[in-house]
Amino acid sequence: MKTIKDPVHGYISVNEKILPLLDSPQVQRLRHIRQLGFSDMVYPGANHTRFEHSLGTMHLAGILAKRLKLDDNDVLLSMVSGILHDIGHGPFSHATEPLIEEYIGRSHHEVEHMLHETEISGAVEKIGLDPSEICRMIEGKHKLAGIIHGDLDVDRMDYLMRDAHYTGVPYGTVDAQRLIQSTILSENGLALKDTGIIAAESLLIARTLMRPTIYFHHVSRIAESMVKAAAVRHLEATGSDRANELLSMDDGSFSVELMNSESESASTLMKSLMRRSLYKRSIYVGLDQIRMSSVLRSSDLIDERRIATEIAEIAGVNEDFVLVDIPSFPSPMSIDVMVENRNDLVSLEEMSPLLNTLNDTRRIQWRMGVYTLPEYRKAVESAATEILNISKPTKQNKLNI
């Protein structure tokens, strides 16, 4: 048994069987992938990595699995799945997720190719686990997947606590121990005792507050848009067949590759990003100012770039100087969590009226951005307003009721 000191959970014990996995190149690579991408441009302390988060997820998964009185094999399965659940992330974590989806055709949860074709395969076999079963856990398709892939999973518990710790914001408070103690195993998967409702609500509140404060902060979104644009231009210059190689790099190698790109646009964007010389918001609007149907149809890289090109043409600026950012629309929280109440299982929504409010809040928090260089802000704003049919914000306090 190896003991690791963690700033969030204290001492973490690592089973001897799992140690070879920690030393695999795929897991060690996570030491060089920032958990929060470019959030350090807003919160200088946010330099923690996917490796730390994976250790924390493994730790909580083990505690929960033992709490559920699972057998030794399922406890090990849960812990290994916690360690490996993020190995599919690209450089700068979620910043490059759209690139992985567009060029490679999978999400970071789809890691079967890594479990069968890399050094991890041998380590998993020595442990005595089935790689396909681990994949089902990570992808949310296993009967026990709710441990690390669910509405109140240990993955969320760890990243909320860890991200709050390193950014210094006071919103990520989660009573992980209470949630774990209140979790039970039902015929349909994991469920929650009614004694854990307040702890569950606290986690969902934390997710809601952390979303605009950290995960969708406009500076982070601008940086992510710049790095996506740089990567697209780089792959246009070098060939899209290099996408897998590029997106398998760590943060440092990826940055150097783009700064030295054959594409002048890619190189300029990445060097500006490294100097924190960022584009500025020209348009930053919510649902009350746009037509939902037109925006939600345009939520991938190709559509974002097409819209950016149209805006640039009307604004009379080079298309490299316009970036369009259309985040995915937030899905409702906690739709699958069931609560044990007087021996019946009921949805958490029925027990907690707070959920509807939180989901409405997440809708209101959603923002679409159009970013450009400071000198082009007015021209780009005018063009974007015309193309996207953006209306003036509604002033609710002046409406007649």
Automatic annotation (TrEMBL):
The keyword Hydrolase applies. GO terms for molecular function: dGTPase activity. Residues 50-160 form the HD domain. InterPro entries: dGTPase-like, HD/PDEase_dom, HD_assoc_2, HD_domain. GO terms for biological process: dGTP catabolic process. The keyword Ubl conjugation does not apply. PROSITE patterns: HD. Keywords: Hydrolase. This is Metal dependent phosphohydrolase. It comes from Methanolacinia petrolearia (strain DSM 11571 / OCM 486 / SEBR 4847) (Methanoplanus petrolearius).
